[in-house]
Structures are given as C-alpha cells and as structure tokens.
Design brief:
The protein is built from 19 helices and 30 strands. It folds into two domains: about 375 residues, ANL, N-terminal domain (Rossmann fold), CATH 3.40.50.12780; about 120 residues, GMP Synthetase, Chain A, domain 3, CATH 3.30.300.30. Strands 5-4-17-16-18-19-20 form a seven-stranded mixed beta sheet, sandwiched between helices. By secondary structure, it is of the alpha/beta class. Bound molecules: 5'-O-[(S)-ethoxy(hydroxy)phosphoryl]adenosine (WTA). The site of 5'-O-[(S)-ethoxy(hydroxy)phosphoryl]adenosine has 23 residues, from helix 11, strand 20, strand 24 and strand 25.
C-alpha cells in the first residue's frame, strides 16, 4: 500500500491546502482515485448549508469493506489487520490477519443475512472491545445495514431510547465484558433495555465472560452457533466469500448518538464514500502512517474516535490497528506502557484525561518499559493542558516524537484541525492548522467575522466551518430539521461546531472549549440538559441545574445544584439516590461529581436560570458574578455561595 496523497513537507501542506479550497472537486476527486469503486461518481460535490444538503461523489457505487479488506488481500493477506490485547494480560492475545478478517466479516455478514438483516436496516451493537466487535461493525457494512454502536457504559434506559429512535430490529451483544477489575453484564442490560420494546426481532450474543445469561427462545441466538452454520454455507473449496452489497456513495454507513444542547441525544448519520475518504486521508496524513506501523488508538469503538481510528481509517489504509479490551490503570498504571513495549507500537493516540490520570501515578509505572518504538503521539477529545502535553512529550515521547493535537467531533467524522506529525509545527495546547478541505471561520455572537482587537495578535470567536468536507455528517437520524437547527441555523451558511477558539498570527487554532451547554467529562460529551432531566426524574427533586467545573483529571467535572421537595431530606442518602437515578437513566459516566442542595436557583424575572452565575460559583469564582440585580431573588446567590462544595 502506498499513499500518493500523503503530505511530505510543509510546503506541500500549504500547496495542497490552497488547491483543496480553490478547487475542492478537483482535489478530492484525485484522492478518490486511490480507492476501489464499483462505479465512479457522476458529480463530486453538491451542497448547500441552508437545507442542509451535502453529497460527495453522488452516483458512485462502492462497499467500504472492499476498501478496508478485500483490496488488501492480494498483497497483505498475512499482514496483521487487528492485534488484540485482552483485558487480562495473562490471557492469550490474538492477531487477526487481513485474510482472517475477510473470512470472519464474510461469515458474520452471512449470519446477519440468515437472521433477516437487509440493506438499510438498523443494527445496534453493544459489545466490549473484542475483535468480534470489529467483525460486527464490518459485517453490517458488508451487507449495507446501518450500524449504531453504543458504548458499554450506557444504561438500559439510554439503550432503549436509542433503539426506539432508530427503530432498531437487530442487536449484537456479548454475555458480558471485562473492563479492568469489573465484569459488565452486557446481555442483562440489553434484556432490561428490551422490556417493552416492540421492534427488536433478534439478539445475537457473543460469549466472552461466561456469566449466566437468559436466552429468550425465538429472539436470542448465540454468535458461535451462527458463525459455524454460516461457515458451512459459505465454504466453497476452502474459500469463504460473501459478496459485498453495492452501496451508493451517499448511503448511510452508521449512526452515532451524541449529546447536544437539548435533553435527547441525537443520531449523527455518516455516509459511505465521504466518510471513508475522510478517515483514510486524515489517518494517513495526521499520523504520517507508514505501512507496517502498529497504530494504537486507546478509544472505545462505542465512540466516534474508535469508529474512525480503530476501524475505518487504519483498515482502509491497510494498516495494523491495535485494539485493547481493558483500561489504562489495570492491573496497574503501567498497562499502556506494557502494551507499547510488547507490540512495539509506533503511534499512540489517546485522550488528555488518560494522560493526566497516568501522570498522577508518577514515573514508577514507566520503569523498565521500552517505549523506543514510538514515533508519533496523538491526543483527542478535549483541550490538552500544557503540563500534560509536556509530560507526554518528555516521558512518553522522550522528546523525539511529534505530538498531534487533533480537534474534531462526532459530527465531523474525522480530524479537522491538527498539526501533521513531523511535517507541520506543533504548539502545546494548540490544534494548529486545518486539514486540506477545511475552512474554519471565527465569528462573534451575531455571526460577524471575528476581528482581533487593535494591537492584539489573537482573534477569538465561535468556531464555524464554511465549506463542506467529505467526512461531515449528512443528517440526524429521523429528524433532518434537528440537524439544520443544531448545526446550520445559528449562523447563515456556516456549520457551527459549538466550540470556541482562538486564532493566532500564524493561522493556528486553539480550541478553548464548548460555548454551548455541553460538558466534556473525561473526553466524553455530556449535555447538561440531559443530566438535569435524569436528576429531575428522582421523585424528591423539584428542580436542578447542572454546570461544569475544572477537574484535574477529567478536564471537566459535573456540578449539580438541586432543590429537593420538603418531604425529602437533603442528606447524604438523597445524594446517593440521585447518583443512582442518573446511573439508571444515562449511565455511570454522567454521575455528578458534586451535588449541592439549594433552596432556590438564580433566575431572571422571566424564569431563565442564570447559568453563568452557577458556573462561576462552581469554578470557585465568588466575586465578579456580574450583574445580579436583574434576578428575581438576588438572595439565593448568597446562599449558594455559602454552600459551595
Ligand atoms: C472537544 C471526539 C480541544 C470539542 C472526537 C469538541 C477537543 C468535542 C479536541 C467533540 C481537541 C475534541 N482540543 N477540544 N483536540 N478534540 N474536542 O463528539 O469540544 O466526542 O466539540 O468527538 O470534544 O467530542 P466528540
């Protein structure tokens, strides 16, 4: 595999960037020539941001799994596609070659077919990080079913909402998952999610932990039995193949649910061809991937980072993707370093929160670990503080590895702003330059282009993108209007990211964080409205307001102000009950770090909660709360200040 579109110098970056903006169609169609199509496109790009409508390579036919697997077989059948490290370091590891991946994905596609799955059907995947998760994802793509992977940390209620939203008919799960010292009873959570569900016809269960599960007759089947049967059906003279469904470039590939300003997570829909190009192009360029490199992305496939940089990016590039079942601190805080040493990892891609957490264990866990194979380091998911950046640089990269700070979102499909490893300069805390094809714009609240104040080098504003790029979302599932109002209605003709940013004289961007009511807790996106809704479900709660505050390890912590009814006490037990409610409604990842009971919330006369004040107090800022005279009852502010945790 070679990558003729891999950027090799800063001059080439500037040249390619210029071309991509002046002639996006010419630029991307040339790159698209490097992929395998069943039929080439009629048009490269049709778009308007008012509807919005975005189509890349309309008229083209392809299947993404032929690009991720089949086309590599002639030259790389025996090269590792996936290397799997189990949760327990004592357990046998697995190496999945491209030939094996092809076989398993074909088999699983047949399993899906045998169970009635057809092109366009929605399949929910709720599994731990085992290679079978990748087979499930790719098996869906092979037959053209739309996968929706749900992170193992979400509760039955969250799953039920997602199943409902996408009218899911098929589920793929495991009996359980191993994560650190815990076993998560996935199948049992699915069973809870299915109480009252009317659409799901089939649940396919892969055996991982062997905890007891209840298999419902007529609905639940075992993965292993199904795979054996499919193998028998497909085998012809020792060869197994399942013809890939031929998809339109714009057919949806998957749905990924993510939090926004409103209470209900939305299903971000990605396309086939554009998404493929984008994950491949950004993977090859940002990380400067070289054939043979071992690439270790520590995300979970339940999140977009895992979709794009464990599965589709690396595999479409014929790369070797390391998949890890466990967590960075189990059995001890040296686990990542052991893995890097064991597999001679070349590129490590992780989240600032993981770096900060590992930093807190000091340097002992690094002793005796050979990290010399590392060539490139990356971060994603949240702003990286300089202290963590320098620790990563010094102790992990030994000052020899470029660090790429990659800014992107579930909606963007892949990286939009990042330095290119060793090619364009890095600057701690700065995502730096946009990828070719990406045109960022900073605007003020009214949508006017931000201008740097006289004598100042920095421009500050809300981050928007003015041109479509191939990997962008196409819609939100079942509700296109929601996609429009969320992303395209705030500012005319611009995609609005929800993030604030700074731009310096060199044209580098620094992402300062969300400007909407979305929190970023340990790199996970959580809407404050979503957490409030969950808290308010507790019988004793009258009202609540949730804000973020700076947290040393998580980046942001969740601070909840809660008014309890008089009948219910505001004691420790009530706090525990609220935490349990949030765990039930969303999942443990959304549990507030702090709950402060209050008797009132600062509201304007029109009844709007003044979050700005609550945020400042949660941050420990007791002075300069701004004008509080417009409040209905300015007295509550004093009370809240006194009770701050
Ligand atoms: C934040 C994860 C600063 C940002 C891929 C964005 C970042 C949200 C960075 C998307 C970064 C992501 N620097 N902030 N390098 N990367 N973010 O959808 O606020 O889970 O809007 O996608 O994470 O989170 P999501």
């Amino acid at each position: 595999m070679s990558y003729p579109y891999q950027i090799k110098s800063i001059e080439q970056y500037h040249e390619d960037y210029k071309k991509s903006i002046e002639d996006p169609e010419g630029f991307w169609s040339k790159i698209a020539e490097n992929f395998q199509w069943r039929k080439k496109w009629d048009t490269v790009l049709n778009w308007n941001f008012t509807e919005p409508k975005v189509e890349w390579f309309a008229g083209a036919k392809l299947n993404i799994t032929e690009n991720c697997i089949d086309r590599h077989l002639p030259s790389m059948a025996n090269k590792p596609a996936i290397i799997w490290e189990p949760n327990n370091p004592e357990e046998r590891t697995r190496t999945v070659t491209y030939a094996r991946l092809h076989k398993r994905v074909c088999q699983f596609a047949q399993v899906l077919k045998n169970n009635g799955v057809k092109k366009g059907d929605r399949v929910c995947i709720y599994m731990g990080m085992v290679p079978e998760l990748a087979y499930a994802v790719l098996g869906c793509a092979r037959i053209g079913a739309i996968h929706s992977v749900i992170f193992g940390g979400f509760s039955a209620q969250s799953i039920a909402d997602r199943l409902d939203d996408a009218s899911v008919e098929y589920i793929i799960t495991c009996d359980g998952a191993f994560r650190g010292g815990k076993d998560i009873p996935l199948k049992s959570i699915i069973d809870d999610a299915l109480i009252g569900n009317k659409t799901v016809k089939r649940v396919i269960v892969y055996t991982r932990t062997r905890i007891p599960v209840s298999m419902i007759k007529g609905r639940d089947v075992w993965w292993e039995d199904e795979m054996l049967h499919a193998e028998d059906q497909l085998e012809h003279n020792g060869v197994i193949d399942f013809p890939a469904e031929i998809m339109d470039a714009e057919d949806p590939l998957f749905i990924s649910y993510t939090s926004g300003r409103t209470g209900k997570p939305k299903g971000v829909v990605h396309s086939s061809a554009g998404y493929m190009l984008w994950t491949n192009y950004t993977f090859v360029n940002v990380f400067q991937y070289k054939p043979g490199d071992v690439f270790f992305c520590t995300a979970d496939i339940g999140w977009i980072t895992g979709h794009s940089y464990i599965v589709y990016g690396p595999l479409s590039a014929g790369g070797t993707s390391l998949m890890f079942e466990g967590i960075p601190t189990w059995p001890d805080a040296g686990r990542f370093w052991d893995i890097i040493d064991k597999y001679k990892v070349n590129i490590l891609y992780t989240a600032p929160t993981a770096i900060r957490s590992l930093m807190s264990y000091g340097l002992d866990p690094l002793k005796g670990k050979d990290l010399s194979s590392l060539r490139v380091l990356g971060t994603v998911g949240e702003p990286i503080n300089e202290e963590a950046w320098h620790w990563y640089d010094e102790h992990i990269g030994k000052k020899k590895c470029p660090i790429v700070d990659t800014w992107w979102q579930t909606e963007t499909g892949g990286i939009l702003i990042s330095n290119l490893a060793g090619i364009t300069p890095a600057k701690p805390g700065w995502a730096t330059l946009p990828m070719p094809g990406v045109q960022p714009v900073l605007v003020d609240e009214q949508g006017a282009p931000s201008i740097s104040p006289e004598g100042e080098a920095l421009t500050k504003g809300n981050l928007c993108i003015s041109l479509p790029w191939p990997g962008m979302l196409r819609t939100t599932w079942g509700d296109h209007e929601r996609c429009r109002t969320n992303y395209f209605a705030t500012y005319e003709n611009l995609y609005f990211t929800g993030d604030g940013a700074l731009k310096n004289e060199e044209g580098f961007y620094r992402i300062t964080g969300r400007v909407d009511d979305v929190l970023n807790v340990s790199g996970h996106r959580i809407g404050t409205a979503e957490v409030e809704n969950a808290i308010n479900m507790h019988a004793g709660v009258v009202e609540s307001a949730v804000v973020g505050y700076p947290h040393d390890v998580k980046g942001q912590g969740i601070y909840a102000y809660v008014i309890m009814s008089q009948k219910h006490g505001d004691d420790e037990q009530s706090k525990k009950d609220i935490l349990q409610t949030v765990t039930r409604v969303i999942g443990a990842i959304a549990k507030p770090d702090k709950i402060q009971f209050v008797t009132g919330l600062p509201k304007t006369r029109s009844g709007k909660i003044m979050r700005r004040i609550l945020r400042k107090i949660a941050e420990g800022e007791m002075q300069n709360l701004g004008d509080t005279t417009t409040l209905l009852d300015p007295g509550v502010v004093e009370e809240i200040k006194k009770g701050k945790l």
